[in-house]
């Protein structure tokens, strides 16, 4: 552990754990602390974080609170959704995609304030430590990183509470006991892990859900909406133009009331263990099939299939923390190129947890009713051409078949 740190930028929520980290940095490193609190749409009042930092001795000029909702959705969530990214086929990467933006802002604040170190509150067992630190190193290769959970000896809840009491850190009554589960939230999703969720054989308790109504209790009448896309990004709902963050918030509300977006998942963490979690991503769960639907009529088959082949790699890069890697940027350029004609409207029906595409149209549609119709007409497709096409594709199969006969297999 280096003791030469003069000033550190801490990712600070204002909660008990990061408040303990703040005081620990002051007492262990004897350094000046700068706090950074990001509004990513987690739905919490952030002004208490400022007051808590002041209470713990942070200078007003060293407290940074930034509203990053629009930047988060525009520059991180939407580019990811252009790729239809899902880790291990189901996870919409709500936690993963927030980390590079937080890391980027921490480094920017470090440069602005002359800090020589950054600090995060991620534990030594999770993925977030990797995501944060890969981001830090990519943007400031010589930065000093402090990861308290890998350094300190506060290994239990009792030890944390004792440290807080000894250092006059306010402790809310509901924070004195062990939390039944941990929560991470932003505008894209809310994730819950640990404690009551650790046994993957046990159903998620009802009280864990916070962003969606029980699908069984959702309205008996479906909600029908239209989402407009321009170059792969959603731009309007029911014809009303919206900013990226406003649009996602609207989809979240539509998903919430219809019980859309619940996911009970056992995932493979990058650090090597399996983890069970419950994710609620109402808006994203609507946006993904809508985007795939508009792509279904505007993307060429080759482009669409190549995107589907590359998507797992792209999703894995984000999950593992490689947002700032050259390979992610290369894939992004390819993905964005594919979206040039992904413009049009998709109509969806939301009903008791389900998202159903019921219509799609685009001025750049490649769908031709003349080509697919069973009716005879003057079209560019001659049925007789299929015979030669099939024979050419069957050539190697016929050759192999002949050999199998000779071999008697």
Automatic annotation (TrEMBL):
Residues 181-398 form the Arginosuccinate synthase C-terminal domain. Pfam families: Arginosuc_syn_C, Arginosuc_synth. Keywords: Amino-acid biosynthesis, Arginine biosynthesis, ATP-binding, Cytoplasm, Ligase, Nucleotide-binding. CDD domains: ASS. InterPro entries: Arginosuc_syn_C, Arginosuc_syn_N, Arginosuc_synth, Arginosuc_synth_CS, Arginosuc_synth_type_1_subfam, AS_cat/multimer_dom_body, Rossmann-like_a/b/a_fold. It catalyses: L-citrulline + L-aspartate + ATP = 2-(N(omega)-L-arginino)succinate + AMP + diphosphate + H(+). Signal peptide: none annotated. L-citrulline binds at residues 91, 96, 127, 131, 182, 191, 267, 279. L-aspartate binds at residues 123, 127-128. Belongs to the argininosuccinate synthase family. Type 1 subfamily. This is Argininosuccinate synthase. It comes from Labrys miyagiensis.
């Amino acid at each position: 552990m280096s003791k030469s740190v003069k000033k550190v930028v801490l990712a600070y929520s204002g909660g008990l754990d990061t408040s303990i980290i703040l005081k620990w940095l002051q007492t262990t490193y004897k350094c000046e602390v700068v706090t950074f609190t990001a509004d990513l749409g987690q739905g919490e009042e952030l002004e208490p974080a400022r007051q808590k930092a002041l209470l713990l001795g942070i200078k007003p000029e060293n407290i940074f609170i930034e509203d990053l909702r629009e930047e988060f959705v525009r520059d991180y969530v939407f580019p990811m959704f252009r790729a239809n990214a899902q880790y291990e086929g189901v996870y919409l990467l709500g936690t993963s995609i927030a980390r590079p933006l937080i890391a980027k802002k921490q480094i920017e604040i470090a440069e602005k304030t002359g800090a020589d170190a950054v600090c995060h509150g991620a534990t030594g067992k999770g993925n977030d430590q990797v995501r944060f630190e890969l981001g830090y190193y990519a943007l400031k290769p010589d930065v000093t990183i402090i990861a308290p959970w890998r350094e300190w000896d506060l290994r239990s809840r009792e030890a944390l509470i004792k440290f807080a009491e000894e250092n006059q850190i306010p402790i809310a009554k509901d924070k004195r006991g062990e939390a039944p589960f941990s929560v991470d939230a932003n505008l894209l999703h809310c994730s819950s892990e640990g404690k009551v969720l650790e046994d993957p054989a046990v159903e998620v308790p009802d009280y864990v859900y916070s962003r969606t109504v029980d699908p069984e209790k959702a309205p008996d009448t479906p909600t029908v909406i239209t989402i407009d896309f321009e170059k792969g990004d959603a731009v309007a709902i029911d014809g009303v133009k919206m900013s990226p963050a406003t649009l996602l918030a609207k989809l979240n509300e539509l998903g919430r009331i219809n019980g859309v977006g619940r996911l009970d998942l056992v995932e493979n963490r990058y650090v090597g263990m399996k983890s069970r979690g419950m994710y609620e991503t109402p808006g994203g769960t609507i946006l993904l099939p809508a985007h795939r639907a508009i792509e279904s009529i505007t993307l060429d088959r080759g482009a669409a299939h190549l995107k589907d082949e590359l998507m797992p790699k792209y999703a894995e890069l984000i999950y593992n923390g490689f947002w700032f890697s050259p390979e992610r940027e290369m894939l992004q350029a390819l993905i964005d190129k594919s979206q040039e004609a992904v413009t049009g409207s998709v109509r969806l029906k939301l009903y008791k947890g389900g998202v159903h595409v019921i219509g799609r149209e685009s001025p750049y549609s490649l769908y031709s009713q003349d080509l697919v119709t069973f009716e005879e007409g003057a079209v560019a497709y001659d049925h007789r051409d299929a015979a030669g096409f099939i024979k050419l594709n069957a050539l190697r199969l016929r050759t192999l078949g002949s050999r199998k006969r000779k071999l008697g297999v």
